[in-house]
Write a structure and sequence with these properties.
Number of helices: 3
Number of domains: 1
Largest sheet: 6 strands, mixed
Low-confidence stretches: none
Number of strands: 6
Helix content: 25-40%
Strand order of the largest sheet: 5-4-3-2-1-6
C-alpha cells in the first residue's frame, strides 16, 4: 500500500486541531515558508506538539526555529532562544535552551521585535540556511500516542 504524500500527511496532522488553530497553523506555516524559502521543513507529530521546524539540514539540532502547535495555540519556538538578545522582552520560557513567542495571529510573525529575534537566530546559527533552493518538507517522526490536539471544552 503506498504511503500518503508528505503534503497529505502534514494536512492530516493539522486536521487534528480545531478550526481556529488549524487555520493559524496553516497561515503561520505559509508565512514561515515565505520567510525562509531555502530551509528544510522538518515535521514531528509528537506526543505533546506538532512541531514544524526550519533548518538548513535534516538534523534536528540544526533547527533554528519551529512552529510548536498544541491544543492551546501556536508558538514560534527558538531552539537556542536562551542565547538570543531580547531587548523587547517578548521571549517566554525559562529553560536552559529554548524560548518561544506565542502567536496570537500570523501578524505576530511580522512584528519588528519577532523579526529581530528571527534575524538574530539565523545570524547565530552554526549552519547557515542554503543560499539557493526551495523548501522541502520531511516528516521526521509520528508518535503513536499523542495528547489531544483540541482543547477540552
Amino acid at each position: 500500500m503506498p504511503t500518503a504524500s508528505v503534503s497529505a500527511q502534514v494536512a492530516s496532522f493539522i486536521a487534528k486541531f480545531d478550526r481556529t488553530n488549524a487555520s493559524l497553523i496553516r497561515s503561520c506555516r505559509s508565512a514561515m515558508r515565505k520567510r525562509l524559502p531555502t530551509a528544510l521543513e522538518l515535521v514531528y507529530d509528537n506526543y505533546n506538539f506538532l512541531a514544524i521546524g526550519y533548518s538548513p539540514t535534516e538534523r534536528a539540532s540544526d533547527c533554528v526555529v519551529s512552529l510548536a502547535c498544541g491544543a492551546n495555540g501556536v508558538s514560534l519556538s527558538f531552539y537556542y532562544g536562551a542565547t538570543l538578545p531580547d531587548p523587547d522582552g517578548v521571549l517566554l520560557g525559562s529553560g536552559n535552551q529554548n524560548r518561544f513567542v506565542r502567536l496570537e495571529s500570523v501578524r505576530t510573525l511580522a512584528e519588528p521585535a519577532v523579526e529581530r529575534l528571527l534575524a538574530a537566530a539565523l545570524a547565530q546559527a552554526k549552519t547557515p540556511m542554503p543560499e539557493s533552493g526551495k523548501t522541502r518538507t520531511i516528516v521526521k517522526s509520528i508518535s503513536a500516542k499523542q495528547r489531544p490536539r483540541r482543547a477540552a471544552r
